[in-house]
UniProtKB/TrEMBL annotation:
This is AraC family transcriptional regulator. Pfam families: Arabinose_bd, HTH_18. Residues 234-330 form the HTH araC/xylS-type domain. Coiled coil: none annotated. The keyword Transcription applies. PROSITE patterns: HTH_ARAC_FAMILY_2 (PS01124). InterPro entries: AraC-type_N, Homeodomain-like_sf, HTH_AraC. SUPFAM superfamilies: Homeodomain-like. The keyword DNA-binding applies. Keywords: DNA-binding, Transcription, Transcription regulation.
Length: 330
């Protein structure tokens, strides 16, 4: 199901901070996302992965190496309840195993694993399945933020034995030395960094068993609620994706979801979205796919996506991407 995951606004807020000194930064970063500056101040506000990735794409267009910078700003306190649960864990190993139980709360786009390799352990991020053009950015952001979490939990830098990345070496490779002071490999099968196994048993300075139990239980409940929202949103996206040529409208979609249109509108608003925004996201993704395949003329793509005339599709695609469909195809 396309972009069915939800995430927090933490990364978006960090991006705004990173670009705060640049002209019209907020406007440029939030362009095409449906997120407003007012949304950033709302507690427990959720956005879709599609929205977050659009902000990321806008950020990378402004500064290609921004993933490394943002990852270094993503401290353990950025993860709310999960952050407190990790900080109060008994050992680094306990904390990392807990974090890996709740990828939805981490907001990661990767499958995270601890891989034992003799006397070393690799913390691996693999199976990235979102926007390919943002693979390097997300790998840099993910691994750097995981390294910062480990440093925060230990109260000192975690010494690394090596780090590897699935993407080719970028022209700003020298910037990797700040978060990864170790040998680097590019073009690997996954993204990972390694440290000596004994660090897993290192006691955490802020360990507190009572707090840890309470926070872990709250994480369990939050994860159930969060994944439930994801499943609900995923079902909506699946229904819309199957009906792009003749969208059902809010009323029709509500009937298919066995609820009233008022209830559907309210739930979507609570998730930071709307019927039209979801429809636009799915149309945009399908449009990019069809344009890249270069098999259908643009007027047929407009019909497949439920537009009454090609001009309406061209106007919408220009609003979504900033370029005309013909330029995107070229």
């Amino acid at each position: 199901m396309l972009h069915s995951h939800l995430t927090t606004l933490n990364a978006v807020s960090l991006m705004l901070q990173a670009f705060k000194d640049e002209d019209r930064a907020a406007q440029r970063l939030l362009e095409g996302t449906g997120i407003t500056p007012a949304d950033l101040g709302r507690a427990d506000w959720r956005i879709t992965t599609h929205q977050e990735l659009r902000v990321c794409a806008n950020a990378v267009a402004m500064r290609r190496e921004v993933g490394l910078e943002l990852g270094q700003r993503m401290h353990v306190s950025s993860y709310g309840m999960l952050g407190y649960a990790l900080l109060s864990g008994a050992t680094l190993g306990d904390a990392l195993h807990l974090a890996l139980q709740y990828p939805a709360l981490l907001g990661t786009l990767f499958q995270l694993r601890l891989i034992e390799d003799g006397e070393r352990v690799w913390l691996s991020a693999s199976d990235y399945g979102q926007a390919p053009e943002l693979a390097a950015f997300n790998a840099e952001f993910c691994l750097t933020s995981l390294k910062v979490i480990c440093n925060d939990l230990l109260g000192q830098p975690l010494p690394l034995l090596g780090a590897r990345f699935a993407h080719p070496a970028p022209d700003y490779q020298a910037l990797y030395s700040a978060p990864f002071d170790c040998p680097l490999q590019f073009g690997a099968s996954d993204n990972a960094f390694a440290f000596e196994r004994h660090w897993l048993a290192r006691a955490l300075p802020l360990a507190d068993p009572i707090t840890h139990r309470a926070m872990s239980e709250r994480c369990r409940r939050q994860n159930l609620e969060f994944t439930g929202r994801q499943a609900w949103l995923g079902r909506i996206r699946q229904l819309l994706q199957q009906q792009l040529e003749a969208p059902p409208g809010l009323e029709g979609l509500a009937r298919q979801m066995s609820c009233s249109s008022r209830t559907l509108r309210r739930h979507l608003h609570e998730l930071g979205s709307s019927y039209q925004q979801l429809l636009d996201e799915l149309r945009f993704e399908r449009a990019k796919q069809l344009l890249a395949e270069d098999e259908l003329p643009i007027y047929r793509i407009a019909e497949v996506l439920g537009f009454s005339e090609p001009a309406s599709f061209r106007h919408a695609f220009l609003r979504w991407s900033g370029v005309a469909p013909s330029h995107f195809r070229a």
